[in-house]
Amino acid sequence: MKALLGLLRSLFWLNDVHDDWNFYMEGWWQNPISILTAIKPLSKNLWCPSITGWLKFNIGAAVKGPKVGCGGVLRDDSGSIRALFSGPVEGADMDVARILAISYALELFCEINWGGIFGLLVELDSQVVLNWITKPNHRPWKWWHKLVSVDLLIKRAGMVEFKIVHQQCNALAFGLARDGASRDSFFKAWW
């Protein structure tokens, strides 16, 4: 019963965070998992699925007043949501929040034990952060330890690639990040 309530809570939370998603409510009580795997974006112009055999983690960071948050959503090659996270980032700027979002995404991917089974594409909206991850000689000394831990998670996850996308392509991740700035604790879920 707790699991069902958790799924229902996640569903309504997703619906609240992202108004332009289509939730298929038919058959909810017979098969609650079906609604979560049927969630798809209404517009095909903003988000596109990964290639077959790969999962895609869209990550984002957002400022809400004086607070910063990060969030991410993991989808399979059909666009179905498989995991998400949202939470506050203490004492950080947007770039550090993006680094932490990547770190949380990789940790969650490894925690689910999908490394080695699927490739992972991580989409973000900052060329600066992407350069810090892919080009160690561009890294600021101040954030070196956080980026080294990302390096270790990349090795653990297996096949990982990064891609820059416009923030509109990461609308749900951005909404989760904005919500994360208001949260008191970190939230994550997968199915």
UniProtKB/TrEMBL annotation:
Gene3D superfamilies: Ribonuclease H-like superfamily/Ribonuclease H (3.30.420.10). Keywords: Signal. Coiled coil: none annotated. Residues 69-179 form the RNase H type-1 domain. Transmembrane segments: none annotated. Residues 1-19 form the signal peptide. InterPro entries: RNase_H-like_dom_plant, RNaseH-like_sf, RNaseH_domain, RNaseH_sf. It comes from the Eukaryota. The keyword Signal applies. This is RNase H type-1 domain-containing protein. It comes from Hibiscus sabdariffa.
